[in-house]
Amino acid sequence: MAMLNALADRYGLDPEAVAGLRVLTDVLVHDRQAPTTIRSRRGVLDDHLADSLVALDLEAVRRAGAVLDLGAGAGLPGLPLAIARPEARFTLLEASARKCAFIERVLKVIGLSNAEVIHGRAESFAAGRGRHDVVTA
């Protein structure tokens, strides 16, 4: 997994984060219920993890204490960012119950405690307004 190691080096990720990203990669590749059409390891690393982690190039994302992933889908970019930033709180907002269930399973498999999934739509998420430093989509 040279690419995963390169991402870890680029973003200064610790071994625990690398292990979490490795598990996430495996789930996205092998779980038939993962809501993504990308199933190759290389594709997941290139199109999902690298594309998600590039947000760490932004100081606002690196410094955020609370992040909202709006329309979380398969948990991207929220899950990789939550793995990379264990000191921050992540809320993954998703309208599809099926996708929420998938993200919940992934949170348990990885053991992420800094992320929560909310089943709902942005226009109905009044409780979340003004509570996040950064919003991703």
Structure notes:
The protein is 47% helix and 14% strand. The chain has 137 residues and is α/β, with parallel strands linked by helices. It has a four-stranded parallel beta sheet, covered by helices on one side. Helix 5 links the parallel strand 1 (66-70) and strand 2. Helix 2 crosses helix 3 (41-53) and helix 2 packs antiparallel against helix 5. The chain is globular. The model has no long low-confidence stretch (mean pLDDT 96).
List keywords for this structure.
137 residues, alpha/beta, four-stranded parallel sheet, 6 helices, 4 strands
Helicity level: 40-55%
Strand content: 5-15%
Distance between the termini: 27 Å
Global structural class:
alpha/beta
Strand order of the largest sheet: 3-2-1-4
Q: How does the overall form come out from the CA principal axes?
A: globular
Q: State Rg.
A: 14 Å
Low-confidence region ranges? none
What count of helical segments does DSSP give? 6
Profile the largest sheet: 4 strands, parallel
DSSP summary, beta strand count:
4
Average pLDDT, rounded to a whole number, is: 96
Output the helix-strand order: HHHHEHEHEE
Concise structural overview:
The protein is an alpha/beta fold. It is 47% helix and 14% strand.
